[in-house]
Fold each of these.
Amino acid sequence: MKLSSNLSRLLLGASAAALVSALSLPASALTVRDDVGVEGSEDDDRGGNEQWDGVVQLYYWSNAGGVFFNCTGSLVNHRTVLSAAHCFNSQPSNTYGLDRAGGDDTIIAAYGPDTFDALFNWLNTGETSIDRRNGLTFSTQVITHPDADFGQVSFPGADVALIALADPLADLPTYSMLFSPVSVGEHVSLAAYGGHGIGSTGDVGIDGKRQAGEDILGMVGSQNDFLRGLDNSSATFFGAPDGDQIMYFIDFDNPDRTGDECQRRSNEDAVAFGVGGVQCVDWTNGAFLNDSLFLGGPSNDFFADDALENEAGTAGGDSGSPLFFDEVNGELLIGGVLSGGFTFVTFPGSGYGDVSYYTSLFQYHQFIEEANPLKYMSAVEGDGNWSDASHWVQNLDPSYRIIDANGNVINGIPDGPEEGLSATGPREGTIYGVDINDVDPAQATPATDSEASAEGTFGGLETTNFRAGGTVEIGATDFVANGLIATMATAESDEAGALSNDFEEERDVPTFGVGDVDFGDLEGAGSSGVAPNNGFNAAGYINYFDVTLDAAGTTTADIDVEIDALTLANADATLAINDDVTFLALVDTQIGQGTLDVGGVFASRDILNFGLITGRDGTIVTDTLFNAGTLTAGTGLTVDGDLVLTSASTLLYEGNAIDVVGDVSLDGQVTGVKFGDTGTLLTFTGSRVGNFSVNAPGVLELAYVYNAGTVTFEVIANDYETQFGGTGSANSFAIGGLLDGLRADNYSDKTTLYDTLDVLSGTDLTTALNALVPAGGLAIQQSNLAGTETRVGQIGSRIKTIRAGRADGNSVNIASTGARSAMPMMGLAMQADAAAQSSAKTNTKGWGSFVEVTAYQGDQEAFNGSDERDIDGLSLTAGIDRQVGKNIRVGGFLSYGESDNDAKDGASVASTEGFTLGAYGVKTGEKIDWSGYVGFGQSDISTARAGLTGGTVSGETEATEVMFGVAGATSFNESLEGVASLDYFSYEIDGYTETGGVSAVTVGDQTIDSLQGSLGANFYFMEDSAAWQPRVGGRVVYDFNGEEANAVISLPGQVGTAGADVVGGSDDLGWVVVSAGLDYQTQGKTIGGLFVEQTFDRDNLEYTTFGARLRVEF
């Protein structure tokens, strides 16, 4: 990067010889338990040692050339360090930056377990990075809270600062901030870079190493609250407002104390000087407070908690370090930054018994939200240009946390403006048994800064420094380290002049003051009016951007763009890079969903794609592009960097190769190819590892050729049956075999059909092939059979009337049948004869006629992977006959029939309509009555089904019908008769070609024959005096020609004569029919009856017939 190269030039003349040791300075890092030791705290691995890598050491690089120890900070995002304002407010904030030639001082942020490694490396080589965990970068701005800036309120008021970094530290962990107060007793973790030491000795100097420890939150309150509780008085020790600022307190507990060393003592029990107060028998330091004498030592136990396993304290160089609340919700939450401690509580300083306080963040959330250099932005819904400020809105920073009303930690900020220095609570804590809320501050008159005494009095005695004599201030101290480390080139040198930040435009960074400060238009979630682009905003502050496209719409990069990070998170979101645009995403790009369409240059350190990346003769510049989504060259794409195609990767081939300037790692699948394709998938300049592990889908197979620098391919096809995986049906095998055989000569004309089927497998492939079966055309055969059986029943009804001797005159029968219906339709049959009322065989030589209308409904079994089918039909038959000889009567009939046969899932429908003309005759005898019929018919058939690729496929054809049969009936007595019959039905359905798209097929001629023999009996319960006479009957039916409906299909216009034999439904060989009736007769003019008939064990079609019969003489 530009910054790195400038630094290299700057540091050519620097060497380790310029270092000035500062290890003997009285500044130190964490001090820890003696039994843990310094090395133990450096190796603290609670949660994994790398969890502390987001804590950084801060050095002050003077424009005069000196590099000094400074403070500690923590990364709240990859561009921002959170620290303490007092580390920087000895001069105005606008004096910090990277304009070294312009006089800026610079803060160095060094990271790693030992920052001396990074610092020495930079001093000697000019390189800012050693590896992922070790390196340094520089501040572009330091932003202190306005109330804590140079010349404002006294330490530690509003002791919060943010440092904007020149380089995004994307490899390091960052921490969330908690903007809600936490109660006493909460576990905390500490991590810092100041000096080091153990509890019994205090700090012994800074060594650049990061140390970590733990403690328990002892008090939430102000400096005055602490001293009031210690003094058990309502006195004011520090002036407002900084002395009353709410802070977090901890103490460094000695694990070896007994608990009896330190107590509140009366004057009589005083350890020394005859003055009572909180006093320890092992006291090493102390001070007169307001009403008492405090004598403290290593056994101090201000907050009545015991030493933890990794108990630690703080000291110089730790200022600005984070106070982590690590058990609130399982993550490291920064609740405060270290400000300092008291000078009088123990000796040596920073040893056992010391106390530290942290500025709490919940009071200053508004400052952090507005001044945070990193802004999270998203595009609004709809299309828009990147340069259009109205296209953008600021999002809530994901690192902000609050505790809601239910006690849950959530992403959010407190309502309303910050309370800042005016916050009055919460206050919680007990100091040596005194609740700080019981020490009423209203009893004292608050002192101003100028009035607050650093030397209290008690009984006329001055406060005394009990270390070496003399007076001592009851004062607070910050933990800043200020030792000189090295002398660098001054700003006046040529080398120094080469150092600048990446933003060349002039800016006027304001000097802060108390009150409102304009940090720019982006003041928090919901703000708008800014198009994201790294650089100085209108108010003079540097903004960096993390951008998310999570709303539907296309955002067009119409200008050159530099941001830190890019995320696409909506399947309907697209970022289109114009041909003349350079787009930089410095940290990384993550495409969870959505499309990146590259026309110009798109550069990002790393790219992780789960969505779609396509090219328009564009270039992607990256360290590594990881593809776990779909990647395609589009019209052209160059990847300047390494390309990793993961096992989840899809490389979509659209006719152009992806050109990789780097190494490639191959895995995943290739799609977009079809049978017969050949081409180049990739070119690359580096090395290759791996192969594509997932072959083409369905029957397709890619034959890859891996050459040096290229990957080419050819697509071949296997047989469809190889992809059924146990799901294949007879029809899918037949049609798959047909298509396999026709592929070579017919693929070019049937490309859409083949391309649709070729990528399928398993159930999907079986279902698709079954969809090519003309199911309605096969099913209609059963409808025709049902219609013919209905006509035979109508003829049989007339023959029964003739046998009964009631043939002359006119009759009308209306009946209805239902098949497999949960609520069978009740039909009414009305039969009116002009014959005598007697049941004897007394036909005359007159004419007779009949008309019968029958409606039928039923279910046909499922076949071809579809649902059951509904059958609805109507048959109207009219006939006329005459007695032509002794016991012989002949006649003719004309029948109209129509029916519908529809799959219940709607996948296919069929209908038929036609006429049948025939003749019948009856010869009655003493023992046996003989009857017979013959008929010929013609019908029109229409079919329709859902197309494989959508739409409807239709067919039209005709059918011819032949039917004849004979029957014999005999009466064994007045109650029992036997009936035997033989019926033959035949249909010839003409072949036809469907229309309606790629799913249309040509259907060959179809023939169905049925030869049904039946044998049955009827029993009549005869009583001469009864008006109602029941009857029952039954018959067994056997179909000698029972067979599956079948047809031969082929492709319209195919080259070759091959066809596929497809079937529809199973064959029915035998079944049983049971009937029952109840006849009514009188001596008058009217005879009627009710009947029911049920078919059993018939697979393809079962009928249940209900009816009523009425005979009227005219």
Amino acid sequence: MKFTEQQQQVIDVRNRNLLVSAAAGSGKTTVLVERICQLVMDEQRPMDIDELLVVTFTKAAAQEMKSRLFLALQEKVKQDPENLHLQKQLSLVHHALITTIDGFCLQFIKEHFYLTDLEPGFRVMDENERMLVFEDVMDKVLTAYYEQKDPRFLAFVENYVDGRNDQRLGMFVGKVYDCAMSTPWPKEWLRDCMKADEGPMERLLADMKQKVEDAVNLFMMAKEEVIAYPALQPFLDHVEGELAKIQPVLTLPTYEACYPIMAGYKVANLPRASKLAEPEKEARAIAKVYRDSAKKLLEDLAKEYFFETPQEVERDKEVMKDMVDILCEMTSRFMDAFTAEKRKRNVVDFSDLEHLTLSVLYDEPGKPSKAAESYAKNFKEIMMDEYQDSNALQEAIISAIANGHGVNNRFMVGDVKQSIYRFRQAEPDLFVQKYDAYTYEESSSQKIDLDLNFRSRNQVLQFSNQIFEAIMQKDLGDIAYDEHASLKYGADYNRDMEELYHPTVCVLNQAAISEKREVAEARMIGEHIKELMETSERPLEYRDIVILLRSKALAPVIVEELGKMEIPAVAMEKTGYFQSTEITTVLSFLRLVDNMRQDIPMFCVLHSPVVGLSERELAKVRGANPEVPFYEAVRCYDENPEIKKKLEAFFSMLSEFREMARYLPIHELIKAFYERTDYADYVSFLPNGELKRLNLDILVERARAYESTSYHGLFHFLRYIDKLTKYDIDLSEGSVNEGKNAVRLMTIHKSKGLEFPVVFVAGMGRQFNKSDIRESLLVSAKDHIVLRYADATMRIRKNTIFFNAMKNQMDKENLAEEMRVLYVALTRAKETLILTGTIRDYDKAMEKYAARIRGKQLLYTGKLAAGCFWDLILPALMARSIYTSANVVVEVVSEVPKEAEASIETLEEKLLTKKALLTPEGTPEGAEKIKTLFGKSYAHQEALLLPIKMSVSEIKHRFMEEVMCAAFDEEKAMEEATPFLPDFFDEVETTNQGALRGTATHRILECIDFTNPALVHPEQEAVTACVKAVVQEGRMREEDCKLVSVAKLTTFFNTSLFASMREAAIHQKLRKEQPFVMSISPKEAGLSGADEEGILIQGIIDVFFEEEDGLVLLDYKTDVVREKEELIKRYRKQMELYKEAMERSLQKTVKKVFLYSFHLQEVIDVTFN
């Protein structure tokens, strides 16, 4: 193979630290393998392969490198069969230390366990077992803190834990712990967090000055527009006045110096203009856009960073120090307890491997041990692949064993533009720092760029370069996309057909379509795929096409819509394992083996093929004994002999399995269930049976893996599964689609390192995930810990300037990561690249983008304003003036094809069916026709993915997502937030627990007798007496009743609505807490699926009563809201379902539907038309 000059230089350079910046498609793995071959074949200083340490990012990459190295050496041996040294290397390949950093650390600890506190038989936990141990230890540590009653701890709980439970507290400690463990010296990092740190203020000033500089640029752009027109002199004077006022800030060194100028900053009013000529009007309009953008930028900046005096800033800092200190102390104690528990079980996690390795390699931070010096002599060269994804901990490990032979011997290769694992604590800054420090000239620390791309057509490269030259600068992400970083064409494609391969940007304008945006985008993609299949210059198969997504949430919709368009498509990363019907059935049976008194698992198993009761039969069982729990109703049912026989057989089997569970391993218990019920064979004959059977087999293997952990028994296994479900750790559905000729869908992260002839990058209009900066706790390895200011006693919660500074810093880091993710996506395409996505209003967006660019680049604040990929790509296209260029095709789509009508079987098809059935099976014609007839796909495949049963709450939340902001507004919630303490902590006086208030209010209304004469226009004393009576009767605990606001109850009992309820109760026409079960269509539940497929829903109606002309329905609400419209939006769907359930079951009309808000103390009419 002929290498380029730069590639050959990478292969040949010796005796120095070498950093190779290898762009996408530059052949870095091939070069790395050739370098290793040349090192072992060096005529002057030949090495053995086991004298090399090669660290890769994944096990798959390590295995691939070993395979490629073996083949390369095998070829060298063929060329020189007498070379004994080469033959030796060939035999050493499979023992070579080509591994991940975790693999290296594991081997190192096994060799040096005697220098640690580990027993020699230690085991590495998988992530799922670690999660269980983690939570168990966390519970013990927090319980100990509650028992100690540390005032600082109690203050932290009151300030930052909501009223429901203290899971938020464990989340905070876990978040700090994870960040600490990504650093080389966790305890030192925690101690640093507890010290006063000037770093946040420095970053605040840097961010502020960058924004001021952008404002100055915007004013200058406004000035350039009007300076040529004398009639616009007042406008020019206005702009120059603002420049004179704001520019001095750029040179001021401290916050205190900036404060007098920036506090309450207001841009002066714009002077009016009249009798302007048309060119002057146009110039003024453009200049006003720039001036208004600068005005908003500066005034927002004043509100964000200069809303407090320097003295108030220092006061907030001191107040929050106590909160940070106790959080660090909790984390440190948890760290010790977690380590002790792991040692007790003789297990380690992957983080332990790295820290134990570090503890052996260093006597103290920065001072390598004698063990490190000795071990370093084993390696003549240390290579790190994907260096951009390493972190400070891994860097410290490698640094300790480098230079073991007295010369620089580190080889690092990667591409900082492809660092997309920040969520795994990757620190691309390490690469950037070395890249800035190393030289292109020969030196002890040298860098080489591999920028020739051998993967993609020139059009793809030109398009990518144009985008990233506009958005990637040092101000965001520390990457300058310059001549060294840009991609150069190195492939050898046919240049005659280049006009067929221009990248395409498809913007779906939501303002002009009525369909759901995900569905419309999927159909737009389908139309492009059809066009490609018909017009491609070379034969194109579906497997040549990949659709890349930022997250896999969009994949099911696209697969479904492409299927409707007869385009085969498969999602390579599937979700929904635990929601699949076959897994739900097996787990429900196991839950009954563990505890039979569980209604939903009982219903699931009885309705499944295991027992085979229909919905109608289950309704008979429930209806026979409606007053007792469902389990008891099932056990005592004896009306229908056939149903009774099925139930008796089931409980007999269940008793056997409960006995077997005492001694059988879980995986054997599951296999016994498959064999006893033939369930695995049954699902194999269903549509997608091969996939369903594979899912059942995966469950057996997961149970087998669980048994190798330190946990045992069915109860803990079910808890283990619950944790996997809770934390969205999906086992992934089995895949039987490998090699299938179909369009593939995968996440951008999954596509890293791969290449495809045709690439769609979809979902360009989906919002970036910024949930991590919406929390009250912000944590960063570099910037330590910042908490939102909170004082529960004063009912205050606010952002400090330090919190805003760190939030903005993390937002910048998130945006830099999103840019790198986009770079990975665009550089996967070999020939054809198509970007698709929706935008709310295209014309308005383009007006907004115009103020975010200066010259050919986006302004710093223009990038910070990006909420999705379109907010980067479209202004970049505008800045680079390539909307009109032949380099890219931009389509603004305002209409997409409707869903194809379902085909109707024709008369000819019916005749074919009849003839096939009448044709003897033994004839070739008959056999072929029967094969055609019965080989068709199941027509209602999507129904197999529907849940069997849902609660009204689940459906309510699906519809609430459309009307409520996903982000939790903590400042609003603080209004009614109350501290959380466990029940046993009754010595401490606490305020009413807001999270339990709703339950207590519902219960007291259920227990109070509405016919009591004392409730006729009652005073507060009468209501208090009614509440006390409920306690005396033993129907509620006194501490629960204390959660109820008697004053608000009194207000409710004095409404005209309650007067009607009391009248109905006297005539026995009022019902409380009425449960129901009914069947609705998937569409009504907010799901996709055939309308004829029913889904059972269950719920409980608070109260309803009957009047002469119909029923009146009421639901109690204790939500904290500002206005009644919020409640109506939230609960409309719930009340619709309640109304439908009542009308179906009672065969009577519901004439009125009400909500009663105890927060607003108001009756709200939500009656539907």
Amino acid sequence: MYLKSIEVHGFKAFANKIVFDFHNGITGIVGPNGSGKSNVADAVRWVLGEQSAKQLRGASMQDVIFAGTENRKPLSYAYVAITLDNSDHKLQVDYEEVTIARRVYRSGESEYLMNGSPCRLKDVNELFYDTGIGKEGYSIIGQGQIDRILSGKPEERRELFDEAAGIVKYKRRKVTAQKKLEHERENLVRVNDILSELERQLAPLERQSEKAHLYLKKKEELKEYDVNMFLLEVERIEQLLDEAGKNFEIASEHLTETKEQHEKMKSEYAAMEEAMTQMDEKISNLKDSIAGTDVTKGKLEGQINVLKEQIHTAQLTKEHLGERIASIEVQQEERRQQGSTYDAQRQEYETQLAAIEKTREQAQEKLQSIQAEITRCKEGIEEGKNEIIELLNRKASVKAGQQRYDTMLEQIQIRKSQLNQRLLQRKIEESSLVEALQKSEQELADIEAKIIKGKENEAKMQAQKEEWRQKTQENVKKLEQANIHYNKMQSRLESLKNIAERYEGYGNSIRRIMEKKETESGIHGVVADLIQVKKQYETAIETALSSNVQNIVTEDEETAKRMIRYLKENRYGRATFLPLTSVGKKEPRRNHEAEQEKGVIGYADHLVSNDKKYDGIMAYLLGRVLVIDTIDHAVVIAKKYHYSLHMVTLEGEYLSPGGSMSGGAFKNSSNLLGRKREIEELEKNIATQKKEIEELKQRNLDIRTAKDLLTEDLEQLRGDLQKALILKNTAQMNVSRAKEQKEESESVFSGLQAESVQIEQQIAEIHEKKEQIAQQIEQAATREKEIEQANAAFQEILDEQIYVEEGAAKNVSEIQLEEANIRQKTEFAIENLERIQREAERFAEEIEKVKADAELSEEDAKKKQADIEEIEKTILASDDTYASLVKELKESQQQKEEMNTEYKGFFEKREEVSRQMNELDKEIFRLNQQREKLEEALESQQNYMWEEYELTFNNAKALRNEEYDNLTEMKKSITQIKEDIRKLGDVNVNAIEEYKEISERYGFLKGQHDDLIEAEQTLLGIIEDLDTGMKRQFAEKFADIQREFDKAFKELFGGGKGTLELVEEEELLESGIRIIAQPPGKKLQNMMQLSGGEKSLTAIALLFAIQNLKPSPFCLLDEIEAALDDNNVARFAKYLHKLTKNTQFIIITHRRGTMAAADRLYGITMQEKGVSTLVSVNLIEKELD
């Protein structure tokens, strides 16, 4: 994968559409300062998702859009697209080429595109996970990133190492899991609130449900008596129906029998007609058979004639077969004679063949000896030629050596002349070097004083920044706690409002009535909504009200009647209404003496607040109930007043007249009375909390503003300090260079003298080598002549042997030809023998076949004679059949006459059966009428059961109890049950279903609560697993980065040592990373102690180490080598070439050494003021030259 192109339009100074095409290797982007080179890096960083305008050197994101010039209008949008070759599918998409684009408009709208389709920033980030590409990766490195690596805290370098170690995606997954965990915990708070509310509702609903169960039990008993009375009546009607049914069955059976008799007669009549028809057909068939017998007899006689003719033909065939056998035997004798002749020829040819083969072998042996001699001569000639070639090559090599020595001598003399010139030049420059050295040392001292002062100011600002950071953390913590408290109260408030709006905790009938409150003006509301109770009295008042807390207050009786009718019509259940016109008109009897007793707080209606118009209602409901502080005081008062008072304690114990007491522990109170109070309290608290949050946010904003101002000042100071360090580095380099030049001038003389002696020695060696070369050339010429003479002798022998070889080869060919002729005659004789053998076998087979055919022909003749005899017997039998057919025809004609006589007796019998069927039909009609009347009576009883109990007869029958057979006792029991039902008073039957619903909802939410707890534990486990995996992976990769950093450091510095350390080794995932460098010849020191160039080179070594370990597909470098001297730039460029094996580099630079290392150059210039344009590569090359 590599970067194919960048398309820029309207981005910063790129007003026109510009496309950069890239290839593998190194591409340089050059241009003067301010031309817009760095905007290329900003464009790539922006399209990969950079959200900080500051990182793009702007104040807001709209600053990236071309702002216009004197001659151009501003553009409305900025667009950047990068295209990557994905043929190796390193990116997990199915495309061979991937284009990522980003567009932003001045209106603030923006979009990301992937291959032309809209996508999210998250999709772009996930696409480049673990590739090193991205706004947080190490594929785009500028001066800003170098500065952060150099001057940043150890913690600020962490992001780069996380990306290199490949744990960024796991950290993001961890953040996602933590967000989910927070969400699950918020859900848990909401579910807990709802569960608490449901627990308050369950207790009163449970009491109402028990009362409703008792009511339904009594109703069920009443139903049982009514059902059994119904079944007794049904039993009487069914007896009558059974009798009518039996009579109906008897009449039906008679009718069925009569109908069957009638149908039987019809069948017999039809059978008789069918028999007569069949008899007619039989007579006709007999007549046809008699006629057919005459025809058959004629055919059989014709067959006899044909068979006799075939027997005659077979006799003639037998004579012909005998003649054929005699002919075949004559041919067999002829073939035996020919076989003897061919066998004699074969033996003669085989004798000749053996003799010729021996002659051929002798001739071939002679030919092979001649050919061996020829081969020996050729090999000798070839060896001579090879040796001559080798001598010629050696001669050429020796002459080339001679020329090389001449060239070396010439080069040594040139070098000697150059050294003399350099010595003269050094003497001239020596005085100026001393002066420059003194000046550089003074500049260095001034810069070092400035740096010391800057570092002191930096330390002060850093301490102040740390103080602001601690204040920020404290404020953020307070804000988080306030938000959590606010969210909990808000969740609780929403839950209570939702419950109140839906009237949860009330019966279904109550909810249905309250739904009509908006349209029905006569409804005032439920009792719980019309009163206010102090918190300490809520339990007592709710206990005193009991189910009356759900009573509905109406304007008058008419409204109550309408609502009761509405409940009945829709089967919504029952409800109790309290009309203002009828309830509470009478003052309740109060015991004022009891009010003075110890522990008495007062009558319950005096402890509630309500609108004055509801005073009568409250007196009716609570006017007889005294509220006592404790149960002990209540018991004493009850005894004193002979158990005649209604009393309730603050904890909810109830003492009724007569001495009964109720109490105990509930899971929670229903809280119907406290809802409104709690909602008001929550709203007040939420407003207060919200104000506090706003104050904390403003405080946080103030701290952030102060911190940002301090950070800007600190960055400005660090920038100035960095410039001073660069100046210091430059001054140190100047001093070092001056000293080196001076030392070099002093050592030149001794070096030149030593080199002159060495040159004289080399000249003497060259002359000696030339003499050796002349001797070698002469020896080679002598050996060449010897080889030519030997080759001439070999050639003479070779010519003679080639002539002899031709004769011998011709003789071998003639012998082989004669051998082939004899071999062919032998094969021909063998083939004739084989052919004669096959013909003899064929003649024997043919004789056998002819004999078999003769036997078959004789058997066939015998068979045909037997067929003739059988046909003659058939003809005789045909005569007998003809006589029997004539006799059968007469008998059939007589039977038909008898059937005609029987046919006439059926008509009178049919008339009698029809009359009986009519009488039975009338009887059945009468019985049907009787049954219908009884069934109507039965249906009337069944309708009663359905209307009263919604029971069918079958369902009622299942409830039959044989003990209920006395109607008088049954009526008494029914009266008693109705009285018990009346005593129960108002019953909320819907409480059973409501209790079930709330119980089920409680169970469901409890399950959700458990699921949320489980999800919380699962997420905690996931976070722990991610932490474990990240620690392991980071530890492994960090060790690899340490190793690669040390290697890259040594190669770029030409030695020394580079080290990486974790600030807090026990906190692998959060620990900062400290960089320690030891350039060659210096002690181990941290980054701040290095010169500017050393710092830059150290940072570059770290980046190159990461690229070595985990190469990114492409890497864009923005003037990161600016602080390096020429020697280090050369090392930098050399190392870049090493990395191009796995990474494509795009370098923004103005250093000539880096430009020279690039495979391709792009130039950025501003031919029009304020507008960056692209110039051609050829133009750049010319300018560089």
